[in-house]
Amino acid sequence: MDLSSLNPEYLQRALHVEAPQSSDYDLNPEARPKGRLILRPASVLVPLRDRGSGPSVLLTRRAARLKHHPGQISFPGGKQDEGDASPLAAALREADEEIGLPPDRVTILGQFDSHETVTNFLVTPFVGLIDPDFEPRIDRTEVDEVFEVPLSFLIDPANLQIHQFTRLGHQRSYFAIPFGPHYIWGATARMLKALADRLCEV
What we know:
The mean pLDDT is 91. The termini are close together. It is globular and about 50 Å long. 20% of the residues lie in helices and 36% in strands. The protein has helices at 8-15, 87-99, 151-154, 186-201; strands spanning 22-23, 40-50, 55-62, 73-74, 77-79, 106-111, 115-116, 121-130, 143-150, 161-167, 170-179, 182-185. With 202 residues, it is of the alpha+beta class. Strands 1, 2, 3, 4, 5, 6, 7, 8 and 9 form a nine-stranded mixed sheet that branches.
């Protein structure tokens, strides 16, 4: 797996590898609520760019003032609104709103396995190439920071960790990818693992 440069054809092949849906419950199957869950549609954009030193992924740190998941690391994206024509349209709209990324500056390569969250969303991740010279325009009501992480770092199995926390007397495990001062964990880390698994299969 050579990631010294961004190869769209390689990435497209990886996105067509069949793989199961991932879930926040993958490491804690006993915590899944009983019965059929009603999952609300959401989608995210996994923005990739290469400025000559290899592909990197743009990630956001959610605003600390937000009610849900404040300060967490995430991809641009969110729930699908009634006015969105498709999950992809929702991901592109949210990326435009959150970091000022116009849809016409994104080349979509494909999508990969949807991810079920403990907050009852079914998130579809789309991978897109963005202009190397794109400069984020952050909506401070939603995002505190935009930063880049080398794709090679994010998909290296040596950097994927399993951490635990205890809540209401129950221990829960989750995936985490620490990167400098940034702590990538939960659904974002699990989706990155899903992408890494696909890239390793090609």
